[in-house]
Amino acid sequence: MPTVVAIIGAGELGASVASHLAHRDHVARILLVDDAGGVAAGKALDIQQACAVSGAHTHLVGTTDVSKASGCDVCVVADPASAGADLPALEHLGSFVHRAPFVLAAPLDARQFAHAVRETGLAPDRLLGSAPEGYAGAVRALIALEAGCSPGEIELAVLGTPSAFVVPWTEGSVHGSRLDQVLSAPQIVRLEALLPRLWPPGVGTLGVAAARIVEGLLGRSRRRASVLAMLDGEFGARGVAGVVPVRLGPAGLVRIDAPVLSVRDRTRVATSLGL
To answer: I want to staple 14 with a disulfide (CB 3.0 to 4.6 A). Which of 78, 85, 131, 252 is the partner?
Structure first.
């Protein structure tokens, strides 16, 4: 069956997610939902016309009717209010979207995310925060400048919580060599001083990140992704939210790939999680 992605919120972030998804041509139909119907329709038309230039075949529709999200394969919440403070809106959305996973595209903190999971009653494996994937990309870009390589050649995990991220240098690699062997100690110190400034990512980065998570959920990508999710024993934490590398599937989170950490990194992650 044709894949359908509903995006709630047709503002700058929602339009960014829709544009990146549409141009990658992995989704048959994108539904942009916003209370401002003219905005949703206008953004959908603009992206549709751009697709005609790029050669993508994705069909886009703008609407004010959130019930049309029923039956979608993935639901992206790109309205920051609905993902954070406006939990009734997210609960209302859950009454229409019964099985599809939710991707929260805005940069939330761990407490906001955990509160959303608890208060909405949604299954934890159906709710994912995609902004950390954008942060991981920004980290790779910065490391690439120091290592003299392409960001795509870097593998790394991003752990902890937003605004208190932990990058375990012994777990990451470039061309199979550990990051702490490729980078000098002064380089790592310099990078660790810069990394906090990368959060939150810009709207363009957040849009790409959410689109990547959607593709993972739809089976279009098998690469490991960094998301904000509820922890279930990882790093000794339960019932709290944290940033972890995961594998994704049509129903949401398939498994958390928690890396083996050094004593120092385990302590840093525990501190970040407030354990």
So the answer is: 78
